[in-house]
Each structure stands twice: as structure tokens, then as C-alpha cells.
Amino acid sequence: MCVRDTVARVFPPHTPVGRIGEKALLRYIRSRVSHGRGVSIGIGDDAAAVETGPLTLMTTDSLVEGVHFRREWAPDTLLGRKALSVNLSDIDAMGGVPRYATVSLCLPADTPFAFVEGFYDGLLSRTAQTGVEIVGGNLSGTSGAIVVDITVLGHGQPLLRRSGALPGDVAMVTGRLGAAAMGVRLLGEGSRLATIAEDDQAARRCLVAQLDPTPPLGFGNAVAREELAHAAIDLSDGLSGDLLAVCQESGVSAWVDGDTMPIDPGAAMLARDRGIDARDLALHGGEDYQLLLAASVEAVPRLRDLAAGMEIALTVVGGFAEGEPALSLLTAQGAVPLVPRSHEHFGGGG
Amino acid sequence: MCVRDTVARVFPPHTPVGRIGEKALLRYIRSRVSHGRGVSIGIGDDAAAVETGPLTLMTTDSLVEGVHFRREWAPDTLLGRKALSVNLSDIDAMGGVPRYATVSLCLPADTPFAFVEGFYDGLLSRTAQTGVEIVGGNLSGTSGAIVVDITVLGHGQPLLRRSGALPGDVAMVTGRLGAAAMGVRLLGEGSRLATIAEDDQAARRCLVAQLDPTPPLGFGNAVAREELAHAAIDLSDGLSGDLLAVCQESGVSAWVDGDTMPIDPGAAMLARDRGIDARDLALHGGEDYQLLLAASVEAVPRLRDLAAGMEIALTVVGGFAEGEPALSLLTAQGAVPLVPRSHEHFGGGG
Fold it and tell me: Does the interface predicted TM-score (ipTM) exceed 0.85?
């Protein structure tokens, strides 16, 4: 019979999860997750119970096999890291601090145990870096694609909303753009992190940006605490689409300077080799998981100091103006309308 | 260009979601969800922000097409209701009150708009009944099965855990058992709610129990507030599996009286017709979404009064004893070991 506190069996890596069974796999996961600060009840009851403040942030994001990832593209550990990172990015973009997560996995019966092991290796490496606690979740079979769905709770006050941008504000972004979009292109061409040449730093940067994004965590929270920005959003759909979302929520228009965008140098070089306009990658590529801020001109010096102190690049890429929500792109030839070409997830594969 | 507060277009029912696109579908969903009490920031930002107390309950449950449901079995409205109900059941089993939910939908590109419309009709009918607020979520494409993943937050203090059952406690269950399991069997045989004979009350009860479960919401919270039970769990895997889970968490054994289980009379009748032992449905069938409690004998009269006041059936089905976590079944022939035959979700289809 089952005994309480059974030590989890570790299964041979190729064992299909359908043979291991839901309950044994839950015991394995539970054995790997230790509960720390703020967790009154963790994995193993009908619900988790966690300590919260008067205002709780809540966000959910999914990664779907064949849409957001392919298992042959990278080790499962990186998928575990990314599944959490994309949610942490949302909490930081609200100015909050992430605290707790639930993890829902839908797995075909023939998924090898190694997937679950690798996924949790990566997930737990990311929780260790960020102090987030895994407090529960769900395991289910599926006849279709692997689906990973993570919900993260956080706290923060004051918050950064999408809706506060004012005419006259500058638009700023953290980090460099376009590398993740070039990364997915390289994966499609057959490049892999494991086999890429040691000295091919450009391709390596792009693959890492796509497979293991590292949002500037903590920066959004620092900006919110000092009330240095009027609005913020994380760059998941692409600069154009996300900037337009800020415009729509704020009731303003915006312009982007095509010459000052901080395009990732590796992505720019690889784009040149392929005859692609690197600005398109930065404007429309998506999955940068950097922060886009709307702030008054007066706040820029302090924002720059704050970013420099956290070793985060911060660049003015444009500004906001009166008008219907719409974008324009400034080029040497003048201003042209900028229409987002963001990802639409129902479009299907890769 | 897009205009703020665009009124959502309603699409012809057969329009594939892949043609509507993620952003337009999000606008549609957002237009249907109004935010009430406790919601500072709802759908439309990087994360929701909700008012919480010092302790927050958090639970996640998925419904996967081909594993937990089939679209031809019932209207999409019932799926929307059930996807929320199974999570509400978890919060109530902790003694809590559900407050907020995020909804993640993974949909193949050819899913008709009518699915989303029907799903939200049902979901919102359930939120209206229970006061739960939909505050966010995610939409994604998939090449595989539809996956619905809902996370619910609640509050409550004191809580009901799985781990508090004591030797000498009685085991009690709410409602009647086995109807949902018979319902899934009827669906497999081709019965449908829409076409079942008016006077076939037994089959109707079973189909409704399977397709539109109604956990005894509020009872767990009432029991917790009066501290009337030592442990609780909601019956999702089946009485045997869930009772064993309480034993494992509490470090006790338990017995079930095979003659006093409150078997649903409709399920019992239909089981008899099919030569099935109705007790097996009640013991192992699963998806009853009733409450199993461990309570002292002294608490039973007050528990009965409380249940009667809420028009909830409450039946003593067995008890807990010292010993290794294991179950036995009392029959006219004596006590025999009872081994759960619960659902294992990696087993695959329906």
C-alpha cells in the first residue's frame, strides 16, 4: 500500500508518463518542490494557501507545443525556464514582485519521464533565481500537443498600467530587440544551441534570447516604486503591437524613431547576411520580453540612472502624442504609418 | 485603425477562430466580462490586480478535449460551467470562498466562434451564480485538442485540510454518488441531454451530474467557519481514491460501509439494468464533486443541521482508525481490503 511521505521513485528517462501514472508523477513533482516563505499550504491539498497583501497581481500564460516551442529545438530545461519567465515578465511589467505559481501540464501518454524531469530542472532553477514558490498545479493527459500553463501571483503598489501614457511622454525600452525573432528563424534553419560553433556569438545570443529569455526583472518594480513611469507593458507581441496596445489603452498616438531602436547587434548582423531588414525584427518580431515604458521627459535622467545601476540598457525609441491610437515610424524620408505585424497565435505552427 | 472601446463585433457562429484572430477574440471576451467587487485591474493589462486578504487560496484545474470532454456530448455552455465548477469545488473543499478566476483557452484554428460564445455563456452564468470574477487569462492556438485551464483564487480562514483526520472520526459525504460516472457511460452509449425522453428522469440526472456538476458550494465554508470537521476533500477521483488521499495525508486508515453509501437512485437503477454493481460507481466512479469530511462523532448532529438548512444530503459512509493508510470495505460477509480504481488521466481517451 502507499505510505505517507514515500520517497519518490525516479523513473528511467524513457518511461512514458502514461505508464508512470498521474499519482506517481504528482508524488515525484511534490518531492522536488520545497515550500518556503509565505506558503501555508503547498502542493498536495485541494488548493494552495499563500500569504498575500491587500492587492494581488495574477497572470496566466501558456506555451503550446508546435505553436510556441518544439521539443527538438532545445533541452526541456529551457522550456521549464521560459514557461515561468514569460509570466514573471508580466508581473514585472505591472511594477510587481512575483511570489507564487501554479503549473498545469497536459502531456500525451507517450511523453517520456525525462521531459518532466528536465522541465522541472529548468523551472526550479528559475524559481531559485527569483524566489518564486511553486504551490500547486495540475497534471492531465491529452491526445494532442503538450500544453504548459502557468499562473503567477505577485504583489506591488503602486502599479504600472498600460493606460497611463500621456501626450508628450517619451517611449523607452529596456535591452536589445529582435534577437528572439532571429532566434526562432535560426531554429527553423536547423541551428541548435548544443551544436552551434563556439565562436558564433551572434547566433548563440539569438538562440538564447528565443529559448531562455531573461526579462529585466525588478526594473519594473523599481520604476513603479519611484513612480517614474506613466505606463508600461512587456514586449511579447513585438514593439509595434505592444506600443499600439499602450496607445489603445491610454487614448493617445505614438511614433517610433526607426534609427534609434536598440536592435540586438547579433540579430542585426545575421539579418544583414539574410537580406532581412533588422528593423522589422525589432518592430514586429516579438518575444523580446523587455519592458516598454511611457514616461515624462523629466523622469528620463532618473530612469537612466536606475537602469544603469541594474546594468540594464534603456533607450528612448519614440514618444506619445495627442490623437487616435495609431503609430507612425520616423525615417530619413519622413513619417510613415506603422501597422503592427504581430503574431496571431491562432495562425498555427512555429 | 483600432479605436479604444471598440464595440466587439459578433462573428457568424461558424467563423473559425483562426480567421477572427487572437486580438479580436480577446476584445470580444473583454466586452462580455464586466468587473465587480474587488477587481482593481481586470482583463486588458499585463496582469490583473485584485483585492485579497492575508491568506489566499489558489487552485488550478484543466479540461482536455478527448480526455475530460467531447464536443458532441453536450452544448459548449455546459463545458464553460463545468470548467469553473470543478475549481469552485476545490476552493469549497478547503473551507474557502471563491473570488477570482483566470481562464486559459488553447484552441485549434478551425474551432468555430460558436464554441467561444457558448463556452463564455456557460462560464458567465456560473460566475453570476457564485459571485466569482473573471479577471484575465490567455488565448492560444494549438494543433491538438482544446484545452481549458482555469485558476481560481479564494479566501477563507480557518481552512479545511486533507491532513487532519483522526482515528475515531466518522467519514461523511454530501449528496449522492455515482451519477456522474453513470452519465459518462450513457454518453458513451449515445445518450444526449438534448434528445433524451422527457420522462427518463434517471438518465437525465446522470447526464446532468456528468455535464453540469453542482458541488455543494458554501457547505465547506460553513463547516470550516464553525470548525466542525478535521479534514475535507472534494470527490473528483472517486470516494475510494479520495478517501485514501485523506488517509495518506492524515496518517490513518479508513473503512467504508458498503451498505450505507448514498448511491444516486437513478444511477442505481440504470446500473441494475446493465448488470453493473452500483457500489462500484459510487466507490470508484469519480467526478461527483461532492464533499468528503472527517469529523468527530460529537460534531455529527450539528453537521446534519447545517446540511439540512442548506438542503444538502449528508451521510455517514464510514470512519477512520489507527493504522497505515489503507481502506477496507464492510460488507455482509465482513471486511475486505478496498483498493481504489481511480481515473489515471494519462490513460488517454474519454
Answer: yes
- CATH number of the CATH domain containing B233: 3.90.650.10
Sort strands B39-41 and B170-174 into parallel, antiparallel or unpaired.
unpaired
Average pLDDT by consecutive 10-residue portion of chain A (350 residues)? Answer: 48 96 94 93 96 97 96 96 98 98 97 97 98 96 96 96 97 98 96 94 97 98 98 96 97 96 97 95 96 98 98 98 97 92 58
A81 and A198 assigned to the same domain: no
Q: Which of B96, B109, B161 sits opposite A346 (nearest CB)?
A: B109
Q: How far apart are CA B337 and CA B350, in angstroms?
A: 28
Per-window interface: A 225-284 vs B, CB < 8 A: 232-234, 244, 248-249, 251
Please count the structural domains in chain B. Answer: 2
Q: Cβ B94–A49 below 8 Å, yes or no?
A: yes
Residues of A in contact with B100 (CB under 8 A): 58
CA gap A299, A314 in Å, rounded: 13
* Domain range for B33: 17-155
Among B99, B122, B155, the domain boundary falls at: B155
Cα nearest neighbour of A39 on chain B: B55
Does the distance separating the beta carbons of A346 and B107 come in below 8 Å?
Answer: yes
The answer to whether residue A24 is domain-embedded is: yes
